[in-house]
Amino acid sequence: MKETSHDLLANTPSGRANALLKVMTERGYVPEAFIDTFTHTMEVEWDPANGARVVARAWTDPEFRELLLRDGTAACQQFGYTGMQGEYIVALENTPTLQNVIVCSLCSCTAWPVLGLPPEWYKSFEFRARLVREGADVLRELGEDLPDDVVVKVWDTTAESRYMVLPVRPAGTDDWSEEELAALITKDVLIGVARPRAVDLPRGTEGV
Ligand code: FE
Known about the structure:
Elements: H1 5-8, H2 13-26, H3 34-45, H4 48-60, H5 62-70, H6 72-77, E1 89-93, E2 98-103, H7 112-115, H8 125-141, E3 151-156, E4 162-166, H9 178-182, H10 187-191
Parallel strand pairs: 1-4, 2-3
Helix pairs in contact: 4-5
Bound molecules: fe (iii) ion (FE).
Fe (iii) ion binds next to loops.
């Protein structure tokens, strides 16, 4: 049976996406290899390991740290982490008593080149609505053992500004290499809903 546009318009996100792709392809609006190239960028190049390298450099290089906090875009550019949704990156500096957390209360924005695409929970109405009102409670529900003296500061991403959190370097990591330090940094840490701990990764297990 011949496929019709009606078949493609199944009431699912993928059905609607496929219908749109079919029409745009038929009309020549989709450049050759665009979908494959963009998929590769999303799945491979936009990686929280990028943000982890930036944090590890900031922990080990005071000049780079100063640059990151002054001009996050320029600091990330030094690693080649730039492009779409990385045009204006702002790094938020945590302290032992200040925990910065990122949200996009409108939708789901993150700094794609350094954080990767947002996790599902980041896009949920509940996270977006509750974080701005009861941030500390939300972090504890997500599993973070947050002391009472830590103030949670919530940053609402906009179309123009994309944030990344610069966490506090865990105690006991003074002689760790950048690679070892970077292995402590996850997407959750870069969003600010978790704090890195050296006990999460005993030395010598990175890359396993
Ligand atoms: Fe958004």
